[in-house]
Amino acid sequence: MDASFAMTWVIEAEQTPASMKHFHALTRQEAQALVPTLWCDELANVLLTVERACKISTAQVATWTDYFLALPVIIHPASLEQSLTEVRPLAQAHGLSAYDAVYLHLAMREQVPLATFDRQLIKAAPKVGVRLLD
What we know:
The chain is mostly helical. It has a single domain (3-128), classed as 5'-nuclease (Rossmann fold), CATH 3.40.50. It has 7 helices and 2 strands; from the N terminus they run ααβααβααα. It has a two-stranded parallel ribbon. Helix 1 packs parallel to helix 3 (38-52) and helix 5 (80-94) crosses helix 6. The longest helix has 15 residues, at 38-52. It is globular and about 40 Å long. The chain starts with a helix and ends in a 10-residue tail after the last helix.
């Protein structure tokens, strides 16, 4: 799951039936999400950005922080070798940023569907045999 998917939960106007279905499955502990370490910083940055833009209040950030901390999220660490020898070439081959390629690489490595709303990742996923979460 990338940050674009998780952030649809936070901003009401961006919620979709699919994203909310998965949010509820996670909150009921019926599913788990796999994320790279990068996800943690991206999530913090997006919460900061939407708060600064007055799209959500400081109180809402606190509530969402509690939600995110309670979710069954498995954080996969990265290594420098992996980033340089696997993620960077994947990004190069598919026109992605290295940040986005981390998500694609994790889905490939763990053979799990990718939860994203990022257009470039949606385009690249099937080219490398990664199914998108529906």
